Structure formats: C-alpha cells, structure tokens
Amino acid sequence: MKMNKHYNELKASYLFVDIAHKVAAYQEAHPEKEIIRLGIGDVTQPLAKCVVDAMHDAVTEMGTKEGFHGYGPEQGYPFLKQAIQGYYAGRGTKLDEDEIFISDGAKSDLANVLGLFDVDNTVLVPDPVYPTYVDDNVTDGRKIIYGRTSQENGFLGMPDDSVKADIIYICSPNNPTGAAYTRTQLKAWVEYARKNNAIILYDAAYECFISDGELARSIFEIDGARECAIEICSFSKIAGFTGTRCGYTVVPKDLERDGMNINKLWLRRQTTKFNGVPYVVQRGAAAVFTESGMAEIQHNLDYYRKNAKVIADALDECDVWYCGGKNSPYIWLRCPGSMKSWEFFDWLLENCGVVGTPGVGFGECGEGYFRLTAFGDAEKTKVAAERIKTAIKAL
Ligand SMILES: *Cc1c(COP(=O)(O)O)cnc(C)c1O
C-alpha cells in the first residue's frame, strides 16, 4: 500500500486556530469586554426571502409524484444554467448554456478542475493568497511559483515574461486583499496566458461586489479569454449560500490544449465523477436571478458595502493605507506604526477588543498587513470602527 505522500508536504494552517486561542485567552482575562469580530470570511445575512420561498416550493414539489426529481443532469438543470446565462448577458458577456456547469461550490471545482491537468505543470499563485489554491496543488505534487505582490502594485500582480507558468490563478476582487483588476490589467494576463499556452483559473467569487465600471466582472469580458480561461464562481457571497452550497464553473468551448477540448473533457469528468447539486438548492439559486431576487440580493450586498465603507472611512480619517473595501467585502490595511501582522493583531485586540486576520497568514508578502471584513453586524462594525479610529489616533 502506497499513500499520496504529498499530503505530508502540506503546511499545517494554524492561522484560525491561533486566532481562536488568542481571543479565548483575552476573553478570559477580560470577561467584561465585548469582542467584535471583523475577521470572519463567512456571510451573516440570512437567505433572501425569494430564495427560501423557491426552496420551500421545490421541497413541496419533491413530495409529490409529478414533482419528484431524482438524479438530475450532472452539469445542472437548464433553468439554472439559463438564469446564469442571462446574468452574464445582462452585462454583455455571451455564454452558451453548455459552457456553464453547476457545482456544489467554488472550492470543490477549484480543486476538481486540476484533475484535467498533468502534475507536470507549473502553477502561478499570487502572494498573499487564498490558501486553498496552494494546498490543492501541493497534494497533487505540482510545482508552485509565487507571484509576489506589494503595496507598490496595489497587491495586483502583473505578468512577468521571465516566468513560465502553465496554470495561473487569478482571484478578483481578491481574497484577502480586496484588490480588483481593471480590464486593461486583465488583458495583459490573457495575453501572457495565450503566449505561454497557459490556462487562467479565474476565481470570480466576489464579482457581485464590483460597482466600478472599469473593473471586470468576468474574465470573459476580455478578448481572447475564451481561448485561455476557466471561470469559477459561487452563490456563497452573492446570495449567502455558504451553508447551502451551490456554485458554477464556466468552461468555454474554444478552450483547447494538447489536442483536447477542455469543455468536452470537463463534461466527461462531471458526468463520471459528480451526480449534481440538489434540485431544491438549484431552485433556490435560480431565484437569485429573478427581478425580486436581484433586488433582495442587492439589499444584502449593500448592507456589507456600508460596513466596508464605515471601516474604510475610519482608516481614511487616521491616514492608514489600505486597499479593497470598495468593490470587495475585504479591507486590507497596512499595520500602523510599522507593526508586524501578529503584533497588530495583539494590539487591536488589547486596545479595541476587535479581532481581524493577520496578513502574514495568507503568505509572506502579507507581513505587515491585516485583513478586516465587512461581513459583520452593522452596529458592531460601527462601534469597532470608532474604537479603531480612536486607538490609532492616540498611537
Ligand atoms: C468564499 C470564497 C469562495 C467560495 O467558495 P464556495 O466553496 O463556493 O463557498 C471561493 N473563492 C474564494 C477566494 C473565496 O473567498
């Protein structure tokens, strides 16, 4: 019996465990203090009413002889694929229905899609990064190159012709930095990918937070992307499906490598290894794209946007550098007083009772930076922002 030894190469992630320990110790020492968590990467607003209603109706249907649904199409029901097609068409991006594949979330597909590619490919991930991209490739044994980013380039890495990568991860708007690429910047990535015969894995989980017209909502807004990119998206952030589980992956039919058509290959993979997302969940997801669904969803997104603005305004007032917060629920700030990420974590907890996430936990280039999220309660976020402002001004 031989095991996949690459699992031994995974670096244990103590980030959220260490945070939990520090917070518990603080709470024990100061039972009277109210701790505000601005570190969470999970949504908090409940599902929209139209989503809940659609799921209720679907459950009722399932309990009838006529309305019962057994195995569905592995790639998703046409009603949901067509709704997504309409969502893209609404902003000028034309997709064929059979280029859309419904998944149980972005995280699974980000890992599963790698199964199409040989392990003898080089992967380019940004630093700092959503840790999943790294771990998915470590366990397969692929070589990873880190694209270093910094305050100078606004934490948006650009292609470097001296680097040869086959698989390129782009997450825009980014987790953890909140930074988002303009169309012009993404054009450079598409050109690089085409020149190097590479494939871009474009994580669009936060596209719904974009309000600036210069920024791309989809990689397929860029000419040539259909020949070099796969887009992975999710209902988690747009509609609070983190616990409900639904996403989608767009694989254009024009994408070919090594004599193979990636769309056909992905269909084959899905029909072989996946049995689809529950009918009830897909009905709930489709409700997101109805007129009332979109209005309710925007209401929830605005709630988070306001939180982001409250935090950003507080940082503006005390001249702290940050990116994100405008087209993203994440605010990535430079630790004041040249503090390191963990130093600032302790300082923020001690002085403000606020919990965030140390930037260094997302990669070396995150050292000296810190992530705050807009997914918290509005009133508590206001209190936290006030405390942060007062404490930093007194620093
Ligand atoms: C939250 C998030 C996702 C969504 O993952 P799901 O599995 O769909 O919940 C994808 N990518 C990034 C970077 C995220 O932060």
From TrEMBL:
<dbReference type="Pfam" id="PF00155">
    <property type="entry name" value="Aminotran_1_2"/>
</dbReference>
<keyword id="KW-0808">Transferase</keyword>
<protein>
    <recommendedName>
        <fullName>LL-diaminopimelate aminotransferase</fullName>
        <ecNumber>2.6.1.83</ecNumber>
    </recommendedName>
</protein>
<feature type="modified residue" description="N6-(pyridoxal phosphate)lysine">
    <location>
        <position position="237"/>
    </location>
</feature>
<feature type="binding site">
    <location>
        <begin position="234"/>
        <end position="236"/>
    </location>
    <ligand>
        <name>pyridoxal 5'-phosphate</name>
    </ligand>
</feature>
<feature type="binding site">
    <location>
        <position position="275"/>
    </location>
    <ligand>
        <name>substrate</name>
    </ligand>
</feature>
<dbReference type="GO" id="GO:0030170">
    <property type="term" value="F:pyridoxal phosphate binding"/>
</dbReference>
<dbReference type="InterPro" id="IPR015422">
    <property type="entry name" value="PyrdxlP-dep_Trfase_small"/>
</dbReference>
<feature type="binding site">
    <location>
        <position position="41"/>
    </location>
    <ligand>
        <name>substrate</name>
    </ligand>
</feature>
<comment type="similarity">
    <text>Belongs to the class-I pyridoxal-phosphate-dependent aminotransferase family. LL-diaminopimelate aminotransferase subfamily.</text>
</comment>
<feature type="binding site">
    <location>
        <position position="71"/>
    </location>
    <ligand>
        <name>pyridoxal 5'-phosphate</name>
    </ligand>
</feature>
<feature type="binding site">
    <location>
        <position position="107"/>
    </location>
    <ligand>
        <name>substrate</name>
    </ligand>
</feature>
<dbReference type="InterPro" id="IPR015421">
    <property type="entry name" value="PyrdxlP-dep_Trfase_major"/>
</dbReference>
<feature type="binding site">
    <location>
        <position position="245"/>
    </location>
    <ligand>
        <name>pyridoxal 5'-phosphate</name>
    </ligand>
</feature>
<dbReference type="GO" id="GO:0010285">
    <property type="term" value="F:L,L-diaminopimelate aminotransferase activity"/>
</dbReference>
<feature type="binding site">
    <location>
        <position position="275"/>
    </location>
    <ligand>
        <name>pyridoxal 5'-phosphate</name>
    </ligand>
</feature>
<feature type="binding site">
    <location>
        <position position="175"/>
    </location>
    <ligand>
        <name>substrate</name>
    </ligand>
</feature>
<feature type="binding site">
    <location>
        <begin position="106"/>
        <end position="107"/>
    </location>
    <ligand>
        <name>pyridoxal 5'-phosphate</name>
    </ligand>
</feature>
<comment type="function">
    <text>Involved in the synthesis of meso-diaminopimelate (m-DAP or DL-DAP), required for both lysine and peptidoglycan biosynthesis. Catalyzes the direct conversion of tetrahydrodipicolinate to LL-diaminopimelate.</text>
</comment>
<feature type="binding site">
    <location>
        <position position="130"/>
    </location>
    <ligand>
        <name>pyridoxal 5'-phosphate</name>
    </ligand>
</feature>
<feature type="binding site">
    <location>
        <position position="206"/>
    </location>
    <ligand>
        <name>pyridoxal 5'-phosphate</name>
    </ligand>
</feature>
<feature type="binding site">
    <location>
        <position position="130"/>
    </location>
    <ligand>
        <name>substrate</name>
    </ligand>
</feature>
<comment type="pathway">
    <text>Amino-acid biosynthesis; L-lysine biosynthesis via DAP pathway; LL-2,6-diaminopimelate from (S)-tetrahydrodipicolinate (aminotransferase route): step 1/1.</text>
</comment>
<feature type="binding site">
    <location>
        <position position="371"/>
    </location>
    <ligand>
        <name>substrate</name>
    </ligand>
</feature>
<keyword id="KW-0032">Aminotransferase</keyword>
<dbReference type="InterPro" id="IPR015424">
    <property type="entry name" value="PyrdxlP-dep_Trfase"/>
</dbReference>
<feature type="binding site">
    <location>
        <position position="14"/>
    </location>
    <ligand>
        <name>substrate</name>
    </ligand>
</feature>
<dbReference type="GO" id="GO:0033362">
    <property type="term" value="P:lysine biosynthetic process via diaminopimelate, diaminopimelate-aminotransferase pathway"/>
</dbReference>
<keyword id="KW-0663">Pyridoxal phosphate</keyword>
<feature type="binding site">
    <location>
        <position position="175"/>
    </location>
    <ligand>
        <name>pyridoxal 5'-phosphate</name>
    </ligand>
</feature>
<dbReference type="InterPro" id="IPR004839">
    <property type="entry name" value="Aminotransferase_I/II_large"/>
</dbReference>
<dbReference type="InterPro" id="IPR019942">
    <property type="entry name" value="DapL/ALD1"/>
</dbReference>
<comment type="subunit">
    <text>Homodimer.</text>
</comment>
<feature type="domain" description="Aminotransferase class I/classII large">
    <location>
        <begin position="34"/>
        <end position="388"/>
    </location>
</feature>
